[in-house]
Amino acid sequence: MKTLVLAEKPSVGRELARVLGSREKHKSHFEGPKYVVTWALGHLVGLAEPEDYDGKFGTWSLEDLPILPGKMKLKVLRESSHQYKAVQQLLRRQDIGELIVATDAAREGELLARWIMDMAKWNKPFKRLWISSQTDKAIKEGFASLKPGSQFDRLYQSARCRAEADWMIGLNVTRALTCKFGSPLSAGRVQTPTLGMIMQREREIMSFRSEGYQVVRADFGSFEAVWRGNGGDSRIFEPGRAEQLQRKLEGRGGTIVKLTKSEKQVPHPQAYDLTELQRDANRLLGFSAKQTSNVLQRLYEQHKLVTYPRTDSRYLTSDMVETLKERLTSVAVGPYASLARPLLRKPLQPGKRVVDDSKVTDHHAIIPTEQTVLLNTLSTEERKLYDLIVRRFISLFYPPARFDNVAVVIDVDGEKLHAKGVTVKDSGWKAVYDGQAVADGEDEDDEDREEEGGSASLPELKEGEKLTVKRCRLQSGRTQPPKRYTEAALLTQMEKHGLGTPATRADIIEKLVSSDTIERQGPSLHPTGKGKQLIELAPADLRSPELTAKWEAELERIARGQGKPEPFLNGIREMAQTLVKGVKNSEATYKPHNVSNSHCPDCGTRLLEKKSKRGLMLVCPSEDCGYRRSGEKRLSNRRCPQCHKKMELKEGKAGMYVQCLPCGITETLNKDAKHVNKREQQKLVKQYAKQESLGSNLGELLKAALEKKGE
């Protein structure tokens, strides 16, 4: 009997087949003497659509909602049905006695495998391959220590509950909003509270009123100090107060009344989990969360240089300690050689900040594998992201950075001036970054640092020393509103509120962008006109992150065996009913924010402007129409009689017309005009060229064709 191995993707299937010696290649699988290796294409089976339960649900209607099947059905996904049939045939082969699930070692990977098994009615034994990297060594060790499939039943139940909850909430609320307000409005269990956080920040920015202030800076010759009030704030808001202080302090003598020295130790940052890596890649490299996920997947799957990406742990397990030197050896090349090699000469003793079995659930932190890296085989994106991971890994074995902090308080005529200084005693792990920006453990929003004297080096000073203010200057500023979320900041908030998982957060952000509810403007995320209205139309319970965080926590409890699926799903059903009822009873209105001046030539409805990868598109909002065309400016050959520039070609209810916006001149195009452009003329010449060879007069045929075209 043979064993069937089910991978998640063809690329992984090929690697498993190579390592397992299954060299006989077929269209949908590889076969060897012991193993048959096949693959899914992501999900091959999904939850059935409403119309699969009852044909009437194919038409969206408010009266039919909520749609809450007693038992959720599965269906084969049409776009990958060919691969499902191939996998099904292999599962039913008489010589296949066992199945090994080798999909991604995570909640979603477990779900897609179980749904395939369920749909194909697999009832023979199965085992689970659970590995954290794709190297040959990891694959061989994984197959040598396969786990019983039943060990992951709880993980499957958690994944099933998540999928069914998203179906019941997302589908019902989206249909309710769309039917109620006559426009495609999408809502969901995670995406709506995420949008809610962006809108809350937008309201804070809009309601913010900026105030001017001044900071008094005193120059003592060898260093500067900043005046601070009794509350510790250096900003002065009262008009004239700063000038008054400037006159009081200028040229006056003072005394150091307090001088404190302290050593500060900053431990190395922890290893990366996916969310932390996405944050750093966004802040330091400008990558979107989705871009980071895609590049990281290539480093894991294609190059085999990093461990499993979709992890939520920042720790390693104790059984990995003996592999750390091998991993350091593999990265000790190029710019990392001088950083890693000194570590290889002595025993590695990682502390609790690096190794902690109790802090690792399904997967440990993202670190390099034992695979030797060839840096020139990586793309620019891959190289940059790999650099972040390698430097973070090497820094785990360096000592803390040590600084001497000096804080000085100077009394000048009863006023207190403050200065801070920092002396680096040992750069420690910061040497690994060689002056590069380091995200973790440092305050990226410390706006007061410059105002309060920053971290300049101070001369040797002592308490009681007399000083003179050489010059006093005023520095003006204005209070700033809260910053709009970057993807890095939004990921932090999603993690803090328990919205989504490391594996799903990037997709949630992309879904909000693709549904035109938020947009990227430089590094910041802005709500669109649609998003601003949608968050007001969505049910109040769905806008708050607290409810979704509670659900995510319950899903985690189910995965750990501490919670049960049915009570959770019953709660979701009740919530779906409440949310739909709230939408039905709503008295709010919705006005599309992106209505253009163009009309649909088929049904006359005003077209909506939508951004796409191909640029601006004009789309008919009518459900039974589907008309769409490019919304980019189209220039005609007709020139403006006033400025002589080419006029813009537009389409309205009465047909095509041309317009010069700067001059305000509009001309209709004559429908009866017998004008044919050169391309059409050439087509007609080719079309009738054959007939000329048979004795016909080409000129007459072409003339007739042109006349017919102009009719």
From TrEMBL:
Region (Disordered) location: 438-462
Residue ranges occupied by any Toprim domain in the UniProt entry: 2-133
Biased composition (Acidic residues): 440-453
Reaction catalysed by this enzyme: ATP-independent breakage of single-stranded DNA, followed by passage and rejoining
Pfam families with a match to the protein in the record: Topoisom_bac, Toprim
Family listed: Belongs to the type IA topoisomerase family.
Protein name (Swiss-Prot/TrEMBL): DNA topoisomerase
